[in-house]
């Protein structure tokens, strides 16, 4: 038995390392699956103020992990800092929201009878069955459009972008500065962008002031509380010691948000109105928009002539959008705006797409950097060998290559 355990231990360690590294995407996929197949627990929790508790806990933990010590060193990269803030808060969001609005005619709308949000038998879906003669729009229900608009109105990711920048040897201090400033300022810009640019429904409008107040109470204040606790030395030591536990705990709270929303949606029967082709289309839209943002930020990095470490920050961080804030914003939406579970689906898919795409980008960038370093190392070694041979020739009373060339030039001139 002991031998079997010894043989299994390396494999178990690899499995544990894989699950820990990818626990957020794995958890999100599991939440969607579990909520769709067995909605009862999620529905029960959704009747309590669990969503608000999860949001508050997420941002207290984010504040506990928020490091600002190196932020002031990033001010030296002023061009990248200014463009980064503009890109994260306005440029990328405006471009994506306008493109999503252009796709608006390709989304269906779910009609749910007034006063009924739980009885699945009374839910009426437009164009689900080809047999009823209705025409089904390829991009799915209108809630998918709403979810996409909410996701792309968000600031950059709170942690994954900084981690990827560090992995690719980018300017860590600059990524930290942009993350802190953009997410704090985003609490004010999100209601404005959604009220100004988003198109949800003809008779529904987002109350920007009410949304701003809710974001301040549930996002900004918990974030500042968590950051304030870092001024206590014992708290900093505990955070440093248990950083992995905090990371997993925060992500568990994040996973619970879509799990509860998906459970309620599944219980109402709204997923009966969604075709597989619409879900596939969401992956395509998410990939298209993310590649577009990567291209725009790459071009701007070249135009601004940013150094490689700063350019890596702009390309990676400024092209990402935060899932945590997007799901939190959906929690505050009125019921007549649509089904929040359906709205959360495109947010999750867009998040998974950007994480996978950027992981591939980081791996490719690192491989490119290694090749460049190998070429430079080889070149420097060759130059060193030439210098060593010249010195050896001088020591032996011989002539260096340069001296021989000079003699040849003199003979030719004579």
Tell me the helix content: over 70%
- Bin the strand percentage: under 5%
**CA gyration radius, whole angstroms:** 27 Å
- Oligomeric state of the chains in view: single chain
Shape by Cα distribution:
globular
- Secondary structure class reads mainly alpha
Number of helices: 16
Secondary-structure element order, as H and E? HHHHHEEHHHHHHHHHHH
Descriptive report:
There is one protein chain. This protein has 414 residues and is mainly alpha-helical. It contains 16 helices and 2 strands. A two-stranded antiparallel ribbon has the order 1-2. Helix 5 (78-102) runs antiparallel to helix 12 and helix 7 (160-167) packs antiparallel against helix 13 (308-317). The longest helix is centred in the last third of the chain and has 56 residues, at 340-395. The chain is globular, with a radius of gyration of 27 Å.
Which keywords apply here?
single chain; 414 residues; mainly alpha; two-stranded antiparallel ribbon; 2 strands; globular
Summarize the structure.
This protein is about 70% helix and about 0% strand.
What does the secondary structure layout of this molecule look like, with pairings?
Layout: H1 2-21, H2 23-37, H3 40-46, H4 50-65, H5 78-102, E1 110-111, E2 124-125, H6 142-152, H7 160-167, H8 172-196, H9 208-229, H10 233-241, H11 243-268, H12 276-303, H13 308-317, H14 323-331, H15 340-395, H16 401-413
Antiparallel strand pairs: 1-2
Helix pairs in contact: 2-11, 3-11, 4-9, 4-11, 4-14, 5-6, 5-8, 5-12, 5-13, 6-15, 7-8, 7-13, 7-15, 8-9, 8-13, 11-15, 12-13, 12-15, 14-15
């Amino acid at each position: 038995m002991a031998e079997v355990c010894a043989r299994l231990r390396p494999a178990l360690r690899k499995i544990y390392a894989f699950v820990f590294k990818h626990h957020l995407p794995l958890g999100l996929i599991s939440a969607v699956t579990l909520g769709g197949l067995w909605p009862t627990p999620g529905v029960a929790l959704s009747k309590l103020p669990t969503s608000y508790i999860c949001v508050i806990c997420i941002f207290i933990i984010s504040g506990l992990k928020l490091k600002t010590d190196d932020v002031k060193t990033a001010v030296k990269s002023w061009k990248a800092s200014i463009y980064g803030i503009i890109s994260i808060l306005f440029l990328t969001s405006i471009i994506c929201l306008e493109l999503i609005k252009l796709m608006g005619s390709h989304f269906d709308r779910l009609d749910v009878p007034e006063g009924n949000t739980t009885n699945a038998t009374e839910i009426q879906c437009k164009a689900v069955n080809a047999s009823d003669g209705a025409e089904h729009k390829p991009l799915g229900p209108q809630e998918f459009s709403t979810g996409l608009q909410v996701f792309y109105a968000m600031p950059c990711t709170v942690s994954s972008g900084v981690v990827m920048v560090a992995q690719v040897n980018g300017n860590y201090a600059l990524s930290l500065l942009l993350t802190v400033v953009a997410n704090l300022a985003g609490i004010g810009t999100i209601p404005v962008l959604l009220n100004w640019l988003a198109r949800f429904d003809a008779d529904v409008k987002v109350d920007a002031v009410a949304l701003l107040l809710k974001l301040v109470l549930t996002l900004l204040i918990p974030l500042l509380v968590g950051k304030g606790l870092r001024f206590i030395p014992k708290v900093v030591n505990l955070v440093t010691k248990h950083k992995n536990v905090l990371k997993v705990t925060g992500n568990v709270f994040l996973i619970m948000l879509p799990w509860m929303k998906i459970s309620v949606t599944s219980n109402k029967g709204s997923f009966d109105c969604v075709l597989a082709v619409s879900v596939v289309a969401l992956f395509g839209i998410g990939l298209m928009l993310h590649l577009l943002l990567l291209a725009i930020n790459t071009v701007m990095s070249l135009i601004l002539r940013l150094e490689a470490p700063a350019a890596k920050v702009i390309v990676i961080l400024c092209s990402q959008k935060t899932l945590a804030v997007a799901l939190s914003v959906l929690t505050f939406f009125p019921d007549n705006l649509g089904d929040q579970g359906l709205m959360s689906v495109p947010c999750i898919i867009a998040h998974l797409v950007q994480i996978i795409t950027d992981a591939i980008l980081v791996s490719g960038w690192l491989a490119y950097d290694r090749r460049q370093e190998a070429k430079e190392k080889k070149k420097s070694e060759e130059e060193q060998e030439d210098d060593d041979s010249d010195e050896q020739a001088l020591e032996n009373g011989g002539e260096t290559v340069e001296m021989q060339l000079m003699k040849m030039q003199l003979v030719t001139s004579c």
